[in-house]
Design goal:
The structure holds two protein chains of two kinds. By secondary structure, chain A is of the alpha+beta class. Chain A has three helices and twelve strands. The longest helix of chain B is centred in the last third of the chain and has 31 residues, at about 135-165. Chain B has one domain (about 1-165). In chain B, about 75% of the residues lie in helices and about 0% in strands. A two-stranded antiparallel sheet of chain B has the order 1-2. In chain B, a hairpin with a 2-residue loop joins strand 1 and strand 2. In chain B, helix 3 (about 40-50) runs parallel beside helix 5, helix 5 (about 80-95) runs antiparallel to helix 6 and helix 6 (about 100-125) crosses helix 7 (about 135-165). Chain B has helices at about 1-20, 30-35, 40-50, 60-70, 80-95, 100-125, 135-164, and strands spanning about 25, 30. The chains are: A alpha+beta, B mainly alpha. The interface between A and B is large, with 54 and 55 residues.
């Protein structure tokens, strides 16, 4: 490399120093060193909470513009009778789904012979949601100080949203079940087929089922729920639903609406 | 004030794009950062537009990369390696040119992206995580295609106003 001036010679030197430093930092962070972990927790917490303060004006502008858009959209929709009929139909469908889900929950209670979660739970607020080329992650406002550990399931309204990936002192990173790196052991339908749910790389809002038995038959609307194999997850948390396309082709769709990421519950499950 | 802005504007803009990346602005159900890597475009463009720019001898660039790593749940140093690869290519390109030729700069940006994304792919594999090749390809192509747009905005509007 040729650099023009003496300032650029310094820059050249610094670039190599920082690249070297970055590699060292990467391998140190990856090695999970005890002393460095505490430093990482403090740095992460500081950056997360500072970034929330710095970006608050931007968030305010975006939220306000969304509210204004929604206000005008609502005015339009009040005139549209077809939309109203569609919404009524949707409401009816949702009511029915609710009844079906309540029945499922009752069944789970019977299976477990107790309340669904015998584990302690922690309510958490989603501070940040990030979807990049690597994964969809969320950052919540509870961390190791609240007893949260990596691997703990994140739920909302009895539906699995994701699991904790990394913890800091007062915040945690979680990955969603639609993430390609998320692997959840599940049971499916009345026949209790066992499989692993993985985020579908082809579609961001679908799930893939791995390690299914060779001979399987699903019914439309079969429920996917967690199983406690190897104590990775608590048993019986709703994950998704099977939608049949034809005899052998199906879609596995998550039950949770990922546009509603606000307040979530973390189940303190990991030992 | 103008001199302060001129001195730190690149760092500030870069920091703001890292923070804005975590705002909930979605296109087809994904955030902007899924489609395009604004930081890499900006680092390259700022360095090409102003060869004397060094982001506080690289220190500010390093700090911004740590912020990005934290917000994205990456291991520390991952973003820094990418940023400095692109910065190094831009520094080399700006030092060998006599006058600005857009096409050569764009090709050299493409080369820096190939280098940066290859290293990123390797680092993610080292972390034991899976990566979707189609996602990384979309991001690469759109970042490369997005370069002329940002080049136009920065060289014709942004830097002209700052220099005024």
């Amino acid at each position: 490399m040729k650099f023009a001036s003496s300032t650029n010679v310094d820059v050249k030197k610094n670039i190599f120093v920082f690249i070297l430093l970055s590699f060292i930092l990467f391998f140190l962070d990856r090695s999970d060193n005890k002393y460095l972990t505490n430093v990482r927790f403090i740095v992460n917490d500081t950056i997360i909470y500072s970034s929330l303060i710095i970006k608050s004006p931007f968030s305010f502008v975006i939220e306000t513009s969304k509210n204004i858009t929604n206000f005008f959209q609502k005015k339009d929709s009040s005139v549209d009778k077809n939309k109203l009929i569609n919404l009524k139909n949707k409401l009816e469908t949702l009511k029915n789904e609710n009844i079906a889900l309540n029945l499922q929950i009752e069944n789970f209670k019977k299976i477990n012979n107790e309340e669904i979660y015998k584990y302690e739970t922690v309510q958490a607020k989603v501070l940040l949601y990030k979807s990049n080329i690597l994964h969809e992650t969320i950052i919540i406002n509870k961390g190791q100080n609240d007893g949260i550990k990596a691997g703990d399931p994140i739920i909302k309204n009895n539906i699995l949203v994701g699991k904790i990936l990394k913890t800091n002192f007062n915040s945690s990173h979680g990955i969603l079940i639609t993430n390609i790196n998320s692997r959840i052991p599940v049971r499916i339908g009345k026949k209790n087929y066992k499989a692993i749910v993985v985020g579908n790389p082809k579609s961001g809002r679908q799930l893939s089922l791995e390690f299914l038995p060779k001979e399987y038959t699903f019914e439309d609307g079969d429920i996917i729920y967690t199983t406690s194999i190897d104590n990775i997850m608590p048993d019986g948390i709703l994950v998704g639903k099977i939608k049949l396309r034809d005899d052998k082709n199906f879609e596995a769709k998550p039950l949770y609406d990922f546009s509603q990421l606000d307040y979530l519950t973390v189940v303190r499950f990991s030992k | 004030m103008i001199s302060f802005l001129y001195r730190y504007i690149a760092t500030l803009v870069l920091l703001i794009t890292v923070l804005i990346g975590s705002l909930n602005i979605e296109i087809l159900g994904k955030q902007i950062s899924y489609y395009i890597n604004l930081q890499l475009i900006l680092i390259y463009l700022f360095k090409i537009s102003n060869p004397n720019l060094n982001f506080g001898k690289g220190f500010y660039l390093f700090l911004i990369s740590i912020v990005n790593d934290t917000l994205n749940g990456l291991f520390f140093g991952t973003s820094a390696i990418l940023y400095f690869i692109v910065f190094a290519v831009a520094a080399f390109q700006s030092s060998i040119k006599l006058r600005s030729i857009f096409l050569y700069e764009w090709i050299s940006f493409g080369v820096s992206l190939i280098l940066a994304y290859s290293v990123f792919f390797g680092l993610i594999k080292l972390s034991g995580e899976d990566i979707i090749l189609s996602s990384i390809s979309i991001n690469f192509v759109l970042t490369l295609i997005g370069y002329p747009v940002f080049w136009f905005l920065i060289t014709n509007i942004f830097l002209k106003n700052v220099n005024r």
